[in-house]
Structures are given as structure tokens and as C-alpha cells.
């Protein structure tokens, strides 16, 4: 086999190996989605539990980078603390060693048999309609492709002395430990997969073109290079998410420095120990070293998690005026890898949006009834935040729609488009109230005490309805819908009653036309806010269902428009 053919075969083998890793990772992640959700649902401040969760999730999805990216997403979304994230990142480093151990099994001459899994797996995905079977097929196919890729890489090296000599010359020329570590870090950063890098190192060592001693240093470098994925993922995230990425890098740097010093002074003892553990199996020796490195580094640093978080906090300071920044508080693209958690976080974001709208409505209504517009800037700023969240959630829902979700979650995602629209409209009324308040202040217009009393009474009902509607939405409480209908009817009756009392005051000369126009605009707005709240509450039913009261209003509006059209 000529040199060019060997190089192309090596590239092909690397590609097949990485494709197999991707197939297996995606299949495992999809089939174990509920298990991953349960694991992350058990997150606590127990550092050992966190390490166990990190190791377990990474062993399941076969990617420490994917686990770390998810963790950064969780920190950014406020699901977990920096302390919890640090423990999980430590565990992820342990979990990733499973990949190296799996790859090293190729030295046991089982590759031919396992490679056949590629055909079995692809047939499962092609001919089965069952999602679970398809996911398992993806895992089986991926496992087979990993060994096909390893076999191709080994074959490219076995079949050509030139390429073996080229690799041997390359690694002899960069035999200095720091250069080997740098090479491992750079190569891993470029391909963004420590698993693939480790697989290639194990293949080169197994073919005797890379000495075990050099392979150990390169493995140390891969642990630094894999941090680039987390660093890239942290761009544009919250301060704490950036700190999580820094902790990941710091943890691996400390481990690499410790083991580099140990290897420099105790290299021959390490090699002798690994040889005793796996005689005549250099691939297994590299895999064992990878396990030992990550276990030992974790054992050393686990007592210092709080110190690591303190260090990250000192290096990456809190942003000034962070509350002024337009941002999403609970959702993050990185957690779309775990759809059930993404759905739960979206609900949190919508509830947060609803609470912001309620608080802003309170401020604006208070400005309207008291004439005090000192919170004008806060009202405008929070209205901008609500609009930003509305757009962000809408985009997130579109992304979620493409995921594989249970039927109930699909319906929920569909209904949330309408919910955020209703909440955004409620938020707009706060701005309307503020405009009314400013116009009244500039024109020297005031409400009468009787008018203020009626407005407060009606707003009190709206506030009660707001609380109940959001509670029904949050807890999916169908039994509470009738109470929302009752309050909506009361608000409708109040609007009719207060229109009459307003006209009576106007006729008696107790109020001006200007104050009357503002009064009518406010009670009309409160009635429409109640309609939006009814929509939010009824969103927990199947899409398209609405209250009888809302249906009657629509019919009445249609009838009125029809009558007007006939008159014209």
C-alpha cells in the first residue's frame, strides 16, 4: 500500500471512528433521556453525589464535553449552583474514561465480531418503527462503527512502513514532555473530542509507532484540549456559566501539572506499573493511565471544590448593573439536549415573565391612581425585559418543536406560544397606564375619590384573578378554572356598573370629561387584562379550548360587527 493510500485510509478510519462515537452518543442520550433527567433531578450540594451524577451521565452519553456543555447551560439557566456544577464536571472527567477503556478492547482481537454490530444496528433503525428500538439500533451501529474505524486506522499503519516511520519520526522529534502535552491539547482542541483523540493515541500505541511514555504525556494534553469546547460554549452566557468553564480548565490544568511532574521524575516506575497491569497490551496501559489520572485528580481536588469556586469568582467578577441587562433567566440552548428539562425550564421562564408583568402592572397602576410617576424608568425598562423574554421564549419554542417530545409536552409547547402572547399584551397595559398617568399629571387632571375607589376595587379583582390564573397554569389545576370564570364575570359586571356611575358623576359635575376619558380607558383595559388571564388559565386544556364566557364574548363581538355591517 502506497503512502497516499495509507494516509487516506487513516483519515477514513478516523472519520468512521468519530461517526461511530456520534451515533453511539446520540443513541444513548436519546434512549436514556428519562434516566439523565432523573440523575440531574437528584442534584444536591453533596459533592460525592454530584461526582457520581457527572460520571454516570458521561458514561451514558459517552462525551465529557457534552456533559460539561449541558452543565454550563444549567448554570446559565439557574438550575444548578457553581458548587454543584464543579462536582459534576469532576465526575464527567471520570465518566469519559469509559471511552478509552472501550477503545482499548480492540487489542483483544474482538474487533471483527463487534464491527458486525454496524450492520445489525443500521437494520434496526431502518426496519423498526419503535423509537426505543431505533435508539438502541443507533447505539449498536455506533459501537460497530467505532471498531470499524479502529480497524481501518490500524490497517493504514500496519500496511505501510513509510507512514509508521513518519509517525515515529514525528514523535521522536517532539519527545520533550511539554511539547507532547501541547500537541495533545492542540489536536484535541482542533477536533473538539478528547474521546477521538484518546482513540487515535491508543491506536498509535497499539501499533508501536508511539511509545507508551510519549502517549502518557499526550493523554495529559487531551484533558486540557477538551476544555476548549466548554470555553466556546460559555461565550455569551452568564457570569456563573463562564466561571464553570474556568473551573473545568483549572481542574484539568492542576491535574496535568501534578501528573507531569510525577511522570518527569517517576516515568519508568509508571511504565513498569502499567506493564505489570497489562503486559504486552500497550493500548490497555494507556486506558488504565487515563482512568488513574482522572480518578486521582478528582480525589486530590474534591476537598477543594469551594476553593475552586472562590478562585473562579475572584477571576471572573460579577457584572455591574447585571439587573439592567436584557437576558433570559431560565432557558438556554445547551439544555435542549435534555428535552424534559428544557420543557420544565421553559415553564419557569414563562412564569418569571408573568411575574414581571404583574409587578410592572402594579407599579403603573399605582402611578395612575396616585399621580406619582417616579418609577417611570423602572416600568419602561421592565417592559423592555418582558418583550425580550417574549421573543426569546418564542424562538426557543420553535427549536423545541423540532425535538422528539412526548405528546403531552408537544401540546404544552404549542399552547405556550399563545400564553406568552397574552402575558406580553398584559405587560403592554402597564405602559398604557403610565402614559395615562403622565398625561393626567401634565394636564392637571385628577380622578375623584369615588373613581379611585372603583378603580382600586376593580384592580383588586384583576389582581386576585392574576394570582389564580397563574397558579392554575403553574400546577395544571383544571378544578380552578370555574373560579377564574366567576371572577371574570364579576369584572365584566364591574365595568358595566362603573360606566354608569361614571356617567352619573359626569352629569352631576363631579368629574371632568378629561378625567372621564382616562377612567373609561382604564376600566376597559382592566376588562381586557381579565380576558388575557382567562386565556392563560385555559391554556392547560387541549389547544383550541376556551372558556364558555370567552366564547360568548367572541360570538357577541361577531354579532355586533355583523349588525353594524348590515346597518351600513
Q: End-to-end distance, in Å?
A: 90 Å
> Largest sheet at a glance?
none
Number of beta strands: 0
Order of helices and strands: HHHHHHHHHHHHHHHHHHHHHHHH
Overview of the molecule:
The chain has 568 residues and is an all-alpha fold. It is built from 24 helices and no strands. The chain has helices at 3-31, 33-41, 47-61, 64-76, 82-95, 97-104, 111-115, 117-127, 131-158, 161-173, 177-191, 194-206, 212-225, 227-233, 239-277, 282-301, 305-315, 339-370, 376-401, 407-443, 449-475, 481-507, 513-538, 548-567. Helix 3 (47-61) crosses helix 5. Mean pLDDT is 84; it is low at 543-548 and 561-568.
In short:
By secondary structure, this protein is an all-alpha fold. The chain has helices at residues 3-31, 33-41, 47-61, 64-76, 82-95, 97-104, 111-115, 117-127, 131-158, 161-173, 177-191, 194-206, 212-225, 227-233, 239-277, 282-301, 305-315, 339-370, 376-401, 407-443, 449-475, 481-507, 513-538, 548-567. Helix 1 (3-31) packs across helix 12 (194-206) and helix 4 (64-76) packs antiparallel against helix 5 (82-95).
